[in-house]
Protein 1
Amino acid sequence: MNDINDILAKHFSGEATVEETQKVEEWKLQHAEEYAVMSEAWKTADKNLLEGLEFKTFDHKTAWEKVDEQLVDEKEIKVIKMTFYKRVAAACAILLAGFAGFWLLNQGPSYNTFANTDNAPKEITLPDGSNVWLAANSTLDYQEDFENERNLKLKGEAFFEVARDEAHPFIITTEFGEIEVLGTAFNVNVTENSTEVGVDHGRVAVRNENGEEDLTIGEFAVANADGVKEISNPDVNYNSWKTGIFNFNETSINEVIDLLNKHYATKVELVSSEKGEVESFSGTFADEPIETIIESIVLTCRVEAEYGDNLIRLK
């Protein structure tokens, strides 16, 4: 007959046979207190965290020292409790140490995060000397060991001026692909359905699993689930959010407002009117105060401007 302690170990490990389970039930009738203590301690180990992992260092038969079922007086029961807790703690320490090692080996690199919660673009200097203008409501993650691995993740929009380092490519990962450069300046806009890339100068590779495009000065591409495609006629205001240079040519007033709101901290809001839609707007502005642009809109679009704290209402 197997020693009851071996059977208990198999029972709490979920490895007991039907016959062994019956023996545990019979033993419980005479040792209810010991069983309750053992059961609670085993649950505390939270073995669910280790499910599916193999750790050959753990042997349920040696998880605790032999417990003499004949020890039944109060003093000896306390000894049983302490022995069991110590043995289970030691066994769980081995398990968790192995789990921690497995977890660490399977984690990717660590990243630092910039999140721009301001209403206007924010300029950032990365550890390698590269400069980034991060648009409002955008997030940029860069690898902690950035001097050796220039890997980044972008959500939203950003303009990059990358410090040249041929030994360490500058790679930006987005939901729809990645952009790789050595040293250049370009704009990346990650939308709900695609990643848009426009090159100011230098050369950029845009790729995903369904395609790749090499871009140079003045060229643009869109990466989405279908692949990567070069764009021949991009919006002239594609990076006005960063430069503050706007070229409006019969541009919808709603689009004008959207572009202004991406560059200026003061927000512009169009209030609906019973007179119908506001006209389109034309004009060229180079880093002008927002009030200058608003006054031009007021004069040419027959609207009124109401100024508040960091808010301008057009109606």
Protein 2
Amino acid sequence: MSAAQAMERVLDVLCPMHLALDATGHIAHVGPTLRKLRPDVELVGQRFLEVFMLKRPRAIKSVNDLRASSGMKLHLQMRDDPQTELKGLLIDGMDEHRSIINLSFGFSVVEAVGEYGLTSADFSSTDLTIEMLYLIEAKSAAMEASRKLNQRLQGAKIAAEEQAFTDTLTGLKNRRAMDHVLARHLEWDRQFALMHLDLDYFKDVNDSMGHAAGDHVLQTVARVMVEETRDSDTVARVGGDEFVILLPDIRDQESLIGIGRRIIKRLEVPIAFQGQECRISASIGTVFHEPDSGYSAEQLFDDADVALYASKHAGRAQQTFYSPSLRNDARNTAPPTGRELPKSA
């Protein structure tokens, strides 16, 4: 074995991405990892400057320029696809005929490993590239685990928030959710309507047929109200047998009359439960919110409640629109449900 061959074997182990140039600038030897970059191309015998494009230093135009750059850092790019970028260092004068250029991927090592299917065996055992790749892989795994954990936590947060705003029996919004939606509409100061609905004779169903029947009735009522309102409306169960509907952008009383009439008519239909019929009806109190009125949520709920009591006093199963005169009428008549009258706003 010649001295040159012995040197090549040593460099193949220590610098598997090196190549040797002869005095004319032709490639005389290629390290094993560098050969993997072009397994179907015979690099030995080709002119170095025809295989690689020197990006820096830009002054290198010939073999003599290249040999004169000994000890300088080179920035190269392979001319054919894939045009992998490389870093290099040329050492001239290994003998009177050869120069050695040791190459590396630099920052593009991650892409190169994937592109060429490289493994740890393709790098020198002392090359810190392997440790860097392990760190990158560990970081990627940790970031992926963190991303999945954040997704689960976000999902759990959304589910918890949704549960906090949902009535578990009916699936409607609850009082907390309605307070939130109402506050938002008041902040926007837009026109909307608020309907307060209370079931008539619901206590009789609970007392005579049991709470299971009462729950079934409440679920049926919830379905009816959702079916008779728009997707943009908010339907909430705010008490045992009390419901509130917020209807944005309602500008005429006739539309509300139609909605209330349909709900009342459907709830007067007996609800079947285990071979029996549950009979209820509904009373509704409705109030408009006008922009720039300055009303608070408490005042709107209070006005809707006054209108609801007026419907109860008038014989149930009807809808009443709030007007200030209803307050005087309410003070002169005891509510049929036995609850206290709302105080004036």
Protein 3
Amino acid sequence: MVEQPARKPFSLMDVRINTYPLDMLLPDTITAIEGGPRITFACANPHSLVEAQKDKDFFSALQWFDHVVADGVGVILAAKLKGRFNIPRITGADYYFTLMAALNEMGGKKVFFLGSTDAVLSRIRNRALIEYPNIAAIETFSPPFGEWSDHDNAKIIEKINSFAPDVLWVGMTAPRQEKWIFRSHDNLSVPFVGAIGAVFDFYAGTYRRAPVWMREWGLEWLYRLSKEPRRMWKRNFVSAPKFFSALLRHRFQG
């Protein structure tokens, strides 16, 4: 990973959160794609940090990733309470669109999408081929639902490596995607792997993102709660209070 000593990461619940803005993170990924050290990318929000305290494999995965960015206003607030006022919010979608545009400018690169359903992946592929015509090839795979056997996992890794992508996007929701990348990375021959979860649905158009003004005001969580109350209630009414309770008790280190 390219060293950027000017802006040190900070620790939140013992997970290292990257402090670089998007335009400073991207060069590491480009360097990896061009033959440098491989890079892994993940997002952190209050829910994922709380869940990681109960899931040792998830916690280990988040500690291991090269770039863990602050995706969620709760993480930004936590940083400010720790005296860090220069932490940018970077969503998986932000990184996805920025890197895909860079790949299109470079030309000749290959991208693999792992996760979601065949229908969603088909829409992703069709849109990406139009918007990024200079990307050489795009491949997708919808993995089995539920737990995979070792045989299934080996087949998935073989399929990815045979395609030899420059970028692998994984969209299987947290913590499954982060844990899979953590376990499988040594067997993957991919310069950059990014865990971006809901971005697959956003990009496919099967799930609409919050309006720009809500994102800018830190209200994307409210929009998602209104659209997916059954899925999002735990994040907002269980994980968020636990997260802020920990803040108030000064349980963060670093």
Protein 4
Amino acid sequence: MNVEMTRVREDDLDMIMDWRMRPYITRYMNTDPVLTREGQRKWFQHIQNSEDQIHWVIRLDGKPIGLINVVEIDRVNSRCSWGYYIAEKEYRSLQLAMFLEWSLYDYVFDVLKLHKLCNETWTENAQVVKLHIMCGSTQDGIMRQHIYKNGVFHDVSIGSILAEEWFSKRVNAKYDRFNFE
């Protein structure tokens, strides 16, 4: 499996805008955006100059299939949060999801040298909550009725993994390590 993460470039913006407005992508996201090219360009300019977030396009054999990011990078408290989606459904698999998650752990703890990686997942997205736990994260708790979207309150699972937890689990993890640009 030849997977690599490349930093978002300006010529990726139309593709990302299309992905981000697909109902099956926004289903478990906090917002249903109506994106514009101008808005995408402003977002791109913001992330290019940001020290607290990094966004990559996930590429499988050179084909762009999704997006992965780290956000809320906090050097003082040595932590960040992350998220991702595979926009092209035919490429979704448990193996890809696990390898992406573990490779991101490597990036956060080996490259960024942070202490803690956090995740927030709607409890309705039970498969992803289970995936995070299977990959080594701990479910720290549930924020009840935390997100209000389309007339409904949604509970959010909060999880995390610490660097020392990943380093001890990584010894036995068998995975392809994907590169982050």
